[in-house]
Amino acid sequence: MGSDNIKKVSIVVPVYNNEGSLIETCAQLHDEHKKSFNQYDFEIVFVDDGSKDDSWKVLQELRKQYDDIKIVKLSRNFGQASANLAGFNFTDGDVVVTISADLQDPITLIPEMLNKWEAGCEIVAATRKSRADGFLSSILSRIAYKIARSANPNIPKGGFDFYLVSRRAKDLLLSFKGRHHFFQGEIMWLGFPTAIIPYERKERKHGKSGWTLTKRISLFIDLILDSTTLPLRAMSIIGAGLALLGYLYAFAIFVSWLFGETPYLGWAAIMVTILGVGGQILLMLGIIGEYVLRIHESSRERPKFIVQDSE
């Protein structure tokens, strides 16, 4: 809590190879605080998520310059969601805002987010109006979010990485177990009063995105499997459909034989049936395997992140 009953805002900034933008990000956050929401106490928690550049050195220098900064270093790259959770552990504000360190999200939105919080919203999500992803990434995102929204319509169409949560929401998110998780879905699953703020994301000025195609595919799988049981139900429906086609095919052969006609012959029909059914079985086993993998990793009870150092 802030001093003398003044409310406190905690800003969590996950960092991954952002050495070129950290000084400017820190300066802009402080400038915006002084200009637009200085009625609140203020702190920034930077979380170095296993950066391979000199981000940690830059953060250590910033820590010497500012008394309202905390810095956390994770032992390796655990992913943005885990980095945010690590930052949550070091906050003591009444409300937490998470924002990326690449200067693509408008810091000027923070006062509007705080106004929504003061009006009673415990979750405020800033969602991009458009995405500048590649073709494959864009297709995967659209499919995944459409499926996720079928389970939870409150999830914005384009998702969100820039958001505000109340202290109560933060504490609940920290209590969740499991390593594979779709963090945006968990935030919206809380069911607390929510506001959505659309915005145009700025172009990246420094470095390049850490979201490789492999990470995007992994997020795509997590998003679908962790937000809905649709894959499991789809397997039942597909299996029932294939069984029905098999019965119809067998009935057609029987009727053909009954009227003295030549039954369906040839390897082509047999091979198509075997390959089709076999492919579906392997796909279903793969989906089941993903769920089993998540259960297995949860049972190992490994931490979602490991803090190597903090100041």
Automatic annotation (TrEMBL):
The record's Pfam families line, in alphabetical order, gives:
Glycos_transf_2
Q: Which residues form the signal peptide?
A: none
Stretches that traverse the bilayer: 237-259, 265-293
Q: What Gene Ontology terms describe what this protein does at the molecular function level?
A: transferase activity
Per UniProt, the keywords (alphabetical) are: Membrane, Transferase, Transmembrane, Transmembrane helix
Q: Which SUPFAM superfamilies match?
A: Nucleotide-diphospho-sugar transferases (SSF53448)
Tell me the ranges covered by the Glycosyltransferase 2-like domain, including all copies: 10-142
One GO CC term of this entry? plasma membrane
Protein name in the entry: Glycosyl transferase family 2
